[in-house]
Please model this.
Amino acid sequence: MSARFARHDDRHRANLIDNRPMDELELLVDLHLDGPRQGPGGAAATQLAIDLADLRGRRNLAIADVGCGTGAATLVLARELDVHLTATDFVPAFLARLERAAARAGLSDRITPVAADMAALPFADAALDAIFAEGAIYNLGFAAGIAAWRRYLKPGGILAVSELTWFSARRPAELERHWQREYPEVDTAAAKLAVLEDLGFGPIGYFVLPRHCWLDNYYRPLQARFPAFLDRHGHAPAAAALVAAEVAEIALYERYGDYFGYGYYVARKLDEASVPP
Ligand SMILES: C[S@@+](CC[C@H](N)C(=O)[O-])C[C@H]1O[C@@H](n2cnc3c(N)ncnc32)[C@H](O)[C@@H]1O
Model:
């Protein structure tokens, strides 16, 4: 899930093309820039979320894709819906890739890439019909992100997010230790749905991202980029450490993917009566 993106929000203006050694965030961006996506997911999953949200057939939608990366989900949303999309991320290099892909796909007029921290999004209150965030809300935290983004949605607006989720009540100790260390907010779907309900949303759909969304769409292309990445950086310790962390995360998923993964949550914003006083 590339949790390490989360730890460097103070360094996002980094210049990737000067000659000094890259810092950790720059290395991370360099490793992920050429990927089809920067986290687990897939077009069919985004389409299923669209269907659950009942967005098809509606005109002139205003939707944000938060933490869009190079825009895998943004492009699906733009293709499928009558929409104006604001695609936000704090890595300008990802947004530049999205801009080029949108132009190639003839979708530029539907997509505005905006460099923005997801903790301070540039939207007016009640401006959006929907917020999508695939593999990204963890950077703020699930509850904090839901609470912070609720105001940007129109009444009845849709929140559609994928989030690290336990698929069972009990897990192997090694796995529990890993994710409690990396992302202590990891929890079961029942607990995540309760968070949504508590923060003024009515869940309208939940599904589990299929394994191929992790393995074929994300991890295998990532693995294929390791050798060139290490060569580009002369096998520097920081680059090697980054690859080692990714290798360990992939092994964990391959071993324990029945116990955890991404849950995709689709929920509708309810009125003020649903929010604690
Ligand atoms: C795991 S990637 C997912 C990207 C994309 N949604 C996808 O599924 O391919 C998380 C994204 O969140 C972005 N990100 C992390 N922290 C952020 C922050 N504080 N503000 C804005 N974007 C952030 C990263 O740059 C990265 O593109």
Residues 7-18 have pLDDT under 50 and may be disordered. The pocket of S-adenosylmethionine is lined by residues 1-2, 5-6, 9, 37-39, 41, 67-69, 72-73, 89-91, 94, 117-119, 134-136, 139 (CB under 6 Å). The two ends are 35 Å apart (CA to CA). Residues 3-213+254-272 form a domain with the Rossmann fold fold (CATH 3.40.50.150).
